[in-house]
Amino acid sequence: MTTALSVNLNKIALIRNSREGNYPDVVAHGKLCLAAGADGLTVHPRPDQRHIRPRDVYELADLLQDNHQAEFNIEGNPFAEKMGDFPGFIQLVLNTKPEQCTLVPDANDQLTSDHGFDLHKSGEILRPIIEQLKAAGVRVSLFMDPDIQQIELAKTIGADRIELYTGPYAEAYKHQDKNFESLFQRYFSAAKHAEQIDIGVNAGHDLNLHNLAYFCRVPKLLEVSIGHALIVDAIAMGLDRTVRTYKDICQKH
Q1: Active-site residue 75, yes or no?
Q2: Ramachandran angles phi, psi of 221, nearest 5°
Q3: Per residue in 56-65, pLDDT tens?
Q4: Which residues of 177-211 are buried (b: 16+ CB within 10 A; e: fewer)?
Q5: Which of 104, 110, 212, 232 is deepest in the core (most CB within 10 A)?
């Protein structure tokens, strides 16, 4: 089994938003990623529109409707409400009906996602949201820490997949932490347990050319979503070559 690569386009939009106009063009760069072999595209729209804007989401949904080989993944805070011309996160997803929606517990003022859901606290609130998205034909993934008990709860409330938050893994790998192997085993065990209870496994956050291959050793890893590192690598390597390099890693493990 190979792991699918979904390229997160947030950083392209962040650069675009630093000037007037539509340069760089998010959709055009999405097309380049797909042409280079990406299996899908990811966006994380936030109410403050610091990077991805609702217009980007609609245009990318149109692009991917015409490309049946690739998937659209919209991730974000399910409780983000309407703000200005941001229609609310769930409404935006229902309007565009991507193949996958990844629900993430990030507040509006967070710099980036930095923890998984605590489903003891939010599970019953999420259950009807998951049901609503699935009724619309959208696969639902929950952003989760490698905690077996929490993954059990994700299955119970109806999630199709989990996305393992790999920030701590990436940090430990970077610094060759003495506890790295025991931490990695937590991810491995979490993925193995997810397989046993029939819930799919994705992963994302701070994965890069250095740490991706090792992480792809976790069992039945269906998809990785990578944005920040991939776009930074593209500055030096070019976008086409960078996507192909990440894709090659995914295919070999």
Answers
A1: yes
A2: -80, 110
A3: 999 999 999 9
A4: eeebeebbebbbebbebbeeeebbbbbbbbbbbeb
A5: 104
SS3 137: coil
Residue 163: strand pairing partners:
143, 202
- Catalytic annotation present for 205: yes
Instruction: Give the active site residue among 75, 163, 193, 223.
Output: 75
Q: What is the pLDDT of residue 177?
A: 83
Q: In one letter, which amino acid is 106?
A: D
Which residue among the candidates 29, 44, 51, 193 is catalytic per the annotation? 44
Q: Is 223 a residue of the active site?
A: no
- pTM for this entry: 0.96
Residue 243 CA, chain-centre distance (Å), reads 16
Report the pLDDT averaged over residues 165-178. Answer: 94
Angstrom distance (rounded) from CA 188 to CA 80: 32
Inter-residue contact 162 to 151 (CB < 8 Å):
yes
Are the C-beta atoms of 29 and 41 separated by less than 8 Å?
no
Confidence check: pLDDT of 42 > 60 = yes
Is residue 161 over pLDDT 60? yes
Which residue ranges make up each domain of the chain? 4-252
**Structure confidence by residue, pLDDT tens digits, 206-246:** 999 999 999 999 999 999 999 999 999 999 999 999 999 99
User: CA-to-CA distance for 45 and 66, rounded, in angstroms?
Assistant: 22
**Poorest-confidence range of 18-27, 114-123, 154-163?**
114-123
- Regarding the domain delimited by 4-252, which CATH topology (the fold level of the hierarchy) does it fall under? TIM Barrel (3.20.20)
